[in-house]
Specification:
Layout: H1 7-37, E1 49-52, E2 62-65, E3 69-70, E4 88-92, E5 98-102, E6 108-109, E7 112-119, E8 122-129, E9 131-132, H2 133-138, H3 141-159
Antiparallel strand pairs: 1-2, 3-9, 4-5, 5-8, 6-7, 7-8
Amino acid sequence: MSAKFDAKAVSAMFKNALNRTLTKIANEQKKMLRDDIKVKNKHLHAKRLKRVRAKQNDLSIKLTSTTKYITPFMLEKSARPHPNPSGYYELENKRGGKFYGTRKKGVSVSGWNISKGHISGSAYYYVQKISNLDDALLAYTDKLKQKAESIFNLEIKKDWK
């Protein structure tokens, strides 16, 4: 009796294992951003962090992100710049929005990028960003690749009975 090799079944098994791996790695990526940079969970949604799932005829997966600034208000309160007499202060614009100003001139203060604005001829400095979301995620690439390989091996073993 000869066993038949079903290419579609094997391809479907690999596709499912890859997609389960992608889901677990995407959740791990979000967890790393929440733990390390303290980004609020509501800012880590599908518009900013995209998943490209495996298909039957294309067995590849990808995690991509947009080039979004990580601003102070995207972070938890403990990770934001702290208002104090010599450094940062909180401002409100005429439409009611808040932003962090600083009395310190320069390109960067304590890891935060500083930008310059003008109101009726006088300059002010404000905290713009700590980094870009896509740049921050590049730091996790190697860790996530290793973890994805081990998860994928476990998922294949589950299906390969």
